[in-house]
């Protein structure tokens, strides 16, 4: 009745993991507080998403899952696309740039309304999978911590700039490398 296009799949795990890869952006958008389109046009914020996607792709590969994403590039190329300079990203990601100029993620909406977010089933699931596989996903783990802090802070939550968030995630990854616990995701 809704006239929606539907596609059957023989590998729902690949589709679900692909959705997780794309939705790793939700935490970055929510922590920045910027509308989605504005957030996606800021390269440092996209680089934060890319760090989480890199870790997720490594963990998914180790788990034997090849994510299927509904975009023009394969899942493994998403971090590369996210790190592109903004003019190149804008050209390549035209469909993404059609989002509502004022739109935000459901995670941001949850923070605004004081509700628990879905962080534990996005970056949190990547961290859990990594641990089960003897790996680490330090950028994802740090995102989980930051979103939980934002949940606790309520309306007084910090709004992160791209530069600040990227530096924080890079610091978490460097620390994980130095400590050398498990395989690095």
The helix count comes to: 10
Element order: H for helix, E for strand? HHHHHHHHEHHE
What percent of the residues sit in helical stretches (DSSP H or I)? 55-70%
Average pLDDT across residues? Answer: 91
Structural class assignment:
mainly alpha
What is the number of strand segments? 2
Low confidence ranges? none
* Sheet having the most strands: 2 strands, parallel
Radius of gyration over alpha carbons?
16 Å
In the sheet with the most strands, the strands line up as 1-2
DSSP strand content: under 5%
Distance between the termini: 43 Å
Described by the principal axes of the CA atoms, the overall outline is globular
What secondary-structure arrangement, pairings included, does this model have?
Elements: H1 12-23, H2 25-32, H3 36-40, H4 43-62, H5 78-83, H6 86-92, H7 106-113, H8 123-132, E1 135-136, H9 138-153, H10 162-179, E2 183-184
Parallel strand pairs: 1-2
Helix pairs in contact: 2-4, 2-7, 2-9, 4-8, 4-10, 8-9, 9-10
Which labels suit this protein?
185 residues, mainly alpha, two-stranded parallel ribbon, 10 helices, 59% helix
